[in-house]
Amino acid sequence: MTIILITSIVIVLLILLLSVKTTSKAYNYKHTIDPIDHTAAKDRQKKDTEQK
After folding, report:
1. Cα(26)–Cα(21) distance, rounded to whole angstroms?
2. What is the pLDDT of residues 1-52, one digit of tens each?
3. Mapped to the 3 state alphabet, what secondary structure does 4-48 carry?
């Protein structure tokens, strides 16, 4: 019974450690934004005005 309890605690701690590690890595990820393509924006605006 003691071996099962110890094994269970080790598994729970391992899962907790991995969860904290992956969450921390996700928060540290730097997101980038693609630059705006001005010609595409003008084309989209032109289409919007033509549809009205």
Report:
1. 9
2. 999 999 999 999 999 999 999 999 988 888 888 777 777 667 777 767 776 5
3. HHHHHHHHHHHHHHHHHHHHHHHHHCCCCCCCCCHHHHHHHHHHH
Which DSSP state fits 52? -
Measure the CA–CA gap between 16 and 10, rounded to whole angstroms: 10
